[in-house]
Amino acid sequence: DIQMTQSPSSVSASVGDRVTITCRASQGIGSYLVWYQQKSGKAPKVLISVASVLQSGVPSRFSGSGSGTDFTLTISSLQPEDFATYYCQQAQSFPLTFGGGTKVEIK
Amino acid sequence: QLQLQESGPGLVKPSETLSLTCIVSGASISSSSYDWGWIRQPPGKGLEWIGVILYSGTTYYNPSLKSRLTISVDTSKSHFSLKLSSVTAADMAVYYCAEYRRSLGSFDPWGQGTLVTVSS
């Protein structure tokens, strides 16, 4: 199975800050990486697929990069509605696996 | 627009079978365009992939659940289902159904989720 490791597990930031979350795969997954945002009590929502393709309707302050084993989700200027937990998921092969999540909290 | 809604008992006894249904609206579940999946999230913890069922009927399961798990589609009733046998407290979680976007490997959209408690 491909293990997905996210870091940090939590980050405290202020509105306007640039936030970077990393996701590392235990083996190469090409660009088959999905990022989700989950707000408290809600289902996850896709932000980015294929490592860097922004889903329709997702603000441009979100961006994704990387390939192979190392990936990054960046929020260029944190907004109040961005406080949530973010998960990566490898989509390269079954069993599909998620990272442990990164909680973005208000500083 | 596709919408999904999980349905099923919120309380299951240990050793019994957990049965959930995902009701699909806004599209024909029998269409060859759609694949489906289940994901769960224990309280306060991260996401765990349970399994997917492709239009062809092919299923892929989490190896840790495979011996207890069945995912099926009922096209006549516009729903797909999950059955997990011999549940324990470790199976307590919010269970989500979702469309599996095979070309991207992503889940989108998701149902709102349903909490299943395992307790006698």
Q: Can you tell me about this structure?
A:
- The complex is a heterodimer of chains A (107) and B (120).
- Chain A has 107 residues and is mostly beta strands.
- Chain A is 0% helix and 50% strand.
- In chain A, strands 2, 4, 5, 6, 9, 10 and 11 form a seven-stranded mixed sheet that branches. Chain A has a four-stranded antiparallel sheet with strand order 1-3-8-7, with no helix packed on it.
- Chain A is globular.
- The termini of chain A are far apart.
- Chain B is 0% helix and 52% strand.
- Chain B has 120 residues and is mostly beta strands.
- In chain B, strands 2, 4, 5, 6, 9, 10 and 11 form a seven-stranded mixed sheet that branches. In chain B, strands 1-3-8-7 form a four-stranded antiparallel sheet, with no helix packed on it.
- Chain B has strands at residues 3-7, 11-12, 18-25, 35-41, 48-53, 59-61, 69-74, 79-84, 93-101, 106-110, 114-118.
- Chain B contains no helices and eleven strands.
- The A-B interface holds A 1, 32, 34, 36, 38, 42-46, 49-50, 55, 87, 89-92, 94-101 and B 46-49, 52, 60-63, 96, 98, 101, 104-108, 110-113.
Short account of what is shown:
The complex is a heterodimer of chains A (about 110) and B (about 120). By secondary structure, chain A is mostly beta strands.
Please name the defining characteristics of this protein.
heterodimer, A: about 110 residues, seven-stranded mixed beta sheet, about 0% helix, about 50% strand, globular, B: about 120 residues, mainly beta
Q: How would the blueprint of this fold be written?
A:
The complex is a heterodimer of chains A (107) and B (120).
Chain A: E1 4-7, E2 10-13, E3 19-25, E4 33-38, E5 45-49, E6 53-54, E7 62-67, E8 70-75, E9 85-90, E10 97-98, E11 102-106
Parallel strand pairs in A: 2-11
Antiparallel strand pairs in A: 1-3, 3-8, 4-5, 4-9, 5-6, 7-8, 9-10, 9-11
Chain B: E1 3-7, E2 11-12, E3 18-25, E4 35-41, E5 48-53, E6 59-61, E7 69-74, E8 79-84, E9 93-101, E10 106-110, E11 114-118
Parallel strand pairs in B: 2-11
Antiparallel strand pairs in B: 1-3, 3-8, 4-5, 4-9, 5-6, 7-8, 9-10, 9-11
